[in-house]
Design goal:
By secondary structure, the protein is of the alpha+beta class. About 40% of the residues lie in helices and about 20% in strands. The protein has one domain. It is elongated and about 75 Å long. The N and C termini lie far apart (about 75 Å).
């Protein structure tokens, strides 16, 4: 009987921690994207034509965005992204050390 109670307790703890750790990764990515888009307001420079960018980033242990790479040769865009995103803290910071790649599009103004 004692072993049965111990086994039941172990199963209960195991399943509850399994359900507590389960989250929807697509929802988390969408929330991260929304917060990053909010950080990128209207650029302070003229955009002549639409620019497509791939930004690679990760999160620090404090939940701050660390921009690793911005796939652009335009220095205005590079500086704008670094100024408005790099080292900014967001609410939905995810796993530290994991690299994320986010496509961005700056539309012509």
């Amino acid at each position: 009987m004692k072993k049965f109670k111990l086994m039941t307790l172990a199963i209960l703890i195991g399943t509850s921690s399994l359900f507590a750790m389960t989250s929807n990764p697509d929802l988390v990515k969408k929330e991260i994207r929304t917060e990053i888009i909010n950080l990128l307001k209207t650029p302070d420079f003229q955009v002549d034509k639409e620019i497509n960018i791939l930004m690679t980033f990760t999160f620090s242990s404090e939940g701050k965005i660390i921009v690793l790479d911005v796939n652009t040769k335009n220095n205005d865009v590079l500086n704008y992204i670094r100024k408005n995103i790099n080292h900014k803290k967001i609410n939905n910071a995810s796993i530290t050390g994991k690299k994320y790649i986010m496509p961005l599009k700056l539309k012509a103004s």
